[in-house]
Write a structure and sequence with these properties.
The structure is a homodimer. Chain A has about 450 residues and is α/β, with parallel strands linked by helices. The first copy, chain A, is built from 10 helices and 23 strands. Chain A has 3 domains: about 5-75, SH3 type barrels; about 100-305, Rossmann fold (3-Layer(aba) Sandwich); about 315-425, Rossmann fold (3-Layer(aba) Sandwich). In chain A, helix 6 (about 325-330) runs parallel beside helix 7 (about 355-360). The interface between A and B is large, with 84 and 86 residues.
């Protein structure tokens, strides 16, 4: 019974929908008690229960309505399923800079398919031009779908694939690359590419959006335009993440791939540069470079590709009563490195010291970051910090915990030797360490 | 050889110090290469190596100088060890409100002892008055040393001890209580007391400092005065955390115990209210209440003490390639609840779904929070969220991950039944859930 027409529905929910004669994509009015919900029926997943009917409301958000005896479902029509009519393809301007758009998935790369509720990549060049026709005035675009997954499923292996795809296009002479990517783990991927793509001649711009293109408040077009503009013409080179500077559409900022973090579940300016300023701002079609130590675009520079990552590296967030046997578990299961998200200036409770000592004695690299997020470690200030240094824990100064994790994964992709790994981890490779002077951090 | 005079030093470092005729507390000048360091010799810990000499510099910070052939140590004097002379005790004003100061340790509760380098509680009433004589004008103070530990070592058991001590003083008729506490885990303890001390008639104020009282930029006195002022006279009741509002000394703000987080390793305004505003501000001796839903001080209200916590609850921060066997480890080791710090609106990679499903089937309570920190979950928006809801993962809306952890520890201190635990976890007990209307969270 559970065919395409009511994909994923079972039990009570399926019965109620069948009774109403509803199919995926139909517009429904669901009444329960005094509440009425209206929207388009979307399919459910394999993990779904048998009690909820999910509709996409006009706001763009989905809601699950629980079905019981008192629920009434009424089919109010086929609904206005948006027809996606590609306008005539704009004339390709071969005089413009060549930019590669390498899609990986996520909200920005999607048109919501009302029929299936699924997210589908909209990334043939003609799809893109039809959604954001202004792109044709900025660059001669070549598109490639590298992945099509939600970013919470991205792995180290995917980072390698993306890095290799970017390298191909850069070596092929593109003026820059744009990588649409889900925002959930966009910061992690930005850090990964910062280490994997060294000595870049051009800008590589990761970009996401917090609202899909079908919602009135979508940031997808503005962010994409900003990213493509930067890839085509910005004066800087390296790996950056482009998103809204504030909740207004006025400016796009470019964050360093190693210093950026998602800091709000839903705001459009969710990404923040931590312990530094963004590298540049784009406003009224004009780039303002904010970071003095920013590498310049230079087509003579030769990209160095180092795309390998080791997955056996962990991030451990410390908390009161943290069970030190978790550290032992990682050591016993062949993990090569552990990045600790400690408290304050870089501390963990004494109860963890024996397990950390044992880890280090067994050649597991242990590094420290702070769950405060902002600020710099100071492991010489209190006893706990000095004791941890004495045990051999490496302080990562003002590096983000997430960047510390990604860097350690990358480090063990480059070497299996712990001493060399320690040296690499403490070497500034992609501005992951801020010099004390770049940012007023302490008052 | 390694006696009190050179406590903790061994090997090369010990030899060099003996050669210089130095003792703990002496002022030294250490030259190495072109660098010269000056400061007071402080002792080292059991975990210390044999290569570093640690001195406390004029700035108040400690530095470890590595000893090698080229290092020269010179004793430049006994140094100006501060003498701690208690001024005459001010007259106790029994007409003033009675306030309990229950010390637990940390920077704010300490005088640095230059002789041992250790942190010592300065919390007899006369100690306190001598450090901050203005306290005598605010309240009739009774002091009690509940703990004397650095806050990274605080455990659930300590939360219980602190809660019971506060309850004793509140039941004894105090106008309020002040709890000096290290800042590292101050946010966790603030959440713990918010759940353990319900229906409070008076304010209970946790307070910390980022700089010890011996440093010129110390925030200890200002924070302590603000906290005691609030305990004595503020119009609100409940558990709050008092710290600097900005880096200036102008105002102290009072954060809700359940909505506050340490957000900078060293700044004095490190604590921020997340997804809400502070409850009140104290400036020029005047309280301004900022939160409309704030409970009022009411001596007729009867405290309900629920001081028990279950330590077998974990916080798991998700990251790319997170090994799902860690979830299995927690389940197999008898953990009763897991709070996940997921990505974005409340997601984890699909690779974790089978382990989470298994955990839930085995009656482990699994709850979701976001590593974004700011914002609210939206687990109905994307497939991953809906799938996790279908598995039985409980969304904690806009609750902080740390508060989620502490609340789940508290919940399993109240009941062993999973269904009752779920109900309690989703019930707003101490403003840990913000209503959508209190804060402009989304744009």
């Amino acid at each position: 019974m559970n065919d395409e027409k009511l994909l994923g529905y079972k039990g009570k929910a399926l019965q109620a929908l069948e009774k109403a004669g509803a199919e995926i994509g139909d517009r429904l009015r669901i009444s329960r008690d005094t509440q009425v919900y209206e929207g388009i029926l979307i399919p459910r997943s394999d993990y779904a229960d048998d009690r909820h009917v999910v509709i996409k409301m006009r706001s763009g958000y989905n809601i699950g309505v629980q079905i019981n005896e008192a629920t009434r479902i009424e089919k109010t029509g086929e609904g206005a399923k948006p027809s996606f009519q590609a306008p005539p393809l704009p004339k390709q301007r071969e005089d413009l800079p060549r930019v590669a758009i390498l899609s990986t998935g996520g909200t920005i790369a999607s048109r919501v398919d009302y029929r299936t509720g699924g997210v589908r990549p909209a990334l043939t060049a003609s799809d893109l031009y039809s959604v954001v026709p202004e792109l044709a005035d900025l660059a001669d675009i070549e598109t490639e779908i590298v992945l099509s997954i939600f970013s919470e499923n991205i792995t180290t292996q995917n980072w390698t694939e993306i890095a290799k795809a970017v390298a191909r296009h850069v070596e092929n002479g593109k003026a820059g690359a744009v990588i649409p990517h889900g925002t959930d783990t966009l910061g992690y991927t930005a850090a990964a590419l910062s280490f994997a793509l060294q000595n870049l001649p051009v800008p590589v711009i990761l970009v996401g959006s917090q609202r899909s293109a079908d919602r009135p408040s979508s940031d997808a077009a503005t962010n994409l335009l900003g990213a493509v503009n930067a890839a085509a013409t910005a004066p800087f080179a390296g790996v950056f993440l482009a998103m809204h500077e504030t909740v207004s559409d006025r400016a796009i900022v470019f964050h360093r791939g190693t210093k950026v973090r998602k800091c709000h579940t839903s705001r459009r300016d969710t990404f923040k540069s931590i312990n530094t300023t963004p590298v540049a701002r784009l406003e009224d079609d004009k780039f303002t470079v904010l970071a003095k130590d920013c590498e310049k675009r230079d087509s003579n520079r030769k990209l160095v590709l180092k795309p390998d990552f080791e997955e056996k590296v962990a991030l451990i967030k410390f908390f009161p009563n943290f069970d030190s046997r978790v550290v032992e578990w990682y050591v016993n299961n062949g993990f090569k490195g552990i990045v600790v998200e400690g408290t304050g200036l870089g501390h963990v409770g004494k109860r963890l010291f024996p397990a950390l000592r044992e880890a280090i004695e067994r050649d597991v690299l242990v590094a420290m970051t702070s769950q405060c997020i902002w600020g710099r470690l100071g492991m010489n200030v209190y006893d706990a910090g000095r004791d941890l240094l004495a045990l051999g824990v490496l302080p990562l100064d003002d590096m983000l915990p997430e960047t510390g994790l990604v860097k350690l994964m990358w480090v063990f992709g480059q070497t299996k030797k712990v001493d060399e790994a320690k040296r690499l981890l403490k070497t500034d490779i992609a501005h992951e360490f801020s010099p004390r002077t770049t940012y007023k951090e302490d008052s």
